[in-house]
Specification:
Length: 109
């Protein structure tokens, strides 16, 4: 699957439903994933930005692939494969890395 942003007006975004998995919808574009063959088909109708480079976080000596699932079907949390060589962390406060998938949506009241 390829992570993409498709620039499509709200009224035409329903045309993409069969071609990609839409993860977030905005007024002027959608963010999601599609098979490479479907990406080519989408490109014939809409401008497309490949966002695949956003699935990794580059640290000093390691690249974290954030596309790897961290939750099981039952909801158990899995350790990220990038940390299999490290010791388990002790209980208590820690630092966390957060990655946002798309722009922040404003809450409409």
């Amino acid at each position: 699957m390829v992570k993409i942003r498709v620039f499509a007006p709200k009224e035409r975004q329903n045309e993409l439903a069969g071609l990609m998995e839409i993860q977030a919808s905005y007024d002027g574009f959608v963010v999601g994933q599609a098979q490479p063959t479907h990406v080519e088909e989408i490109k014939r109708q809409f401008p497309v930005e490949d966002m695949s480079y956003l699935v990794s976080i580059n640290l000093k000596n390691k690249i974290l692939d954030t596309s790897k699932p961290r939750l099981t079907i039952k909801g158990s949390i899995l350790e990220h494969p990038a940390y299999t060589h490290t010791k388990k962390m002790k209980m208590g406060p820690h630092h966390y890395i957060t990655q946002f998938i798309g722009p922040v949506k404003h809450l409409v009241k």
